Amino acid sequence: GGGINATNWIGAVAGSKTERHSMRDSKAYADSEAFLRLMPRRWRAGDVYAPKDLGSASQKKYANVQRPREDIFDILNINPLDNYKNFSVISEFMTSAGRIRPATETGLRAVNQRRMAKAIRRAIGMGLHPSVHRHPELLKKTVL
Q1: Computed over its alpha carbons, how large is the radius of gyration of the chain?
Q2: Among 103, 94, 102, 79, CA closest to 124
């Protein structure tokens, strides 16, 4: 009858050589794609690295790379340095203890965060803004 003999069964299980190579190549490609997803750092030709650079602890540094985003000063097309006399703007970027808020809280790009910090230091240096607490007019508004 139409049964499977030993040579047909071995050929069916093993497949042709090209099928086996293409299966192996596709598995290798899938493995390399999975590895690249786990490795967020993008290496360029000529980069020098140590074995520890390929470890997970080193790769975590590159996992949360955030692209520069627009902030309020970019949207309004305002230079933060021009607002050193405006104590209400300065107070928004300072804590109640008089410290400059970090960029994670303000949401400013690095360039505008540095400009705002410079404007704050300028206002404090000129005596336009208190260095240890919020401006008295703003404190009065929050109390009332």
Answers
A1: 30
A2: 94
Going by the DSSP 8-state scheme, the letter that residue 40 receives in this structure is -
Q: Per residue in 70-89, pLDDT tens?
A: 888 999 999 999 999 998 89
Q: How confident is the model at residue 9 (pLDDT cuts 50, 70, 90)?
A: very low
* Residue type (1 letter), 55: G
* C-alpha–C-alpha distance, residues 96 and 85, integer Å: 19
Residue 129, C-beta contacts closer than 8 angstroms, at least 6 positions apart: 87, 90, 91, 94, 120, 123, 135
Q: What is the pTM (predicted TM-score) of this model?
A: 0.50
Query: What's the rounded Cα separation, in Å, for the pair 73 and 82?
Result: 11
The tokens of 91 are what? 């107070």
Q: Which of 56, 69, 66 is nearest to 112 (CA)?
A: 69
Residue 52 burial (CB < 10 Å; 0-12/13-18/19+)?
exposed
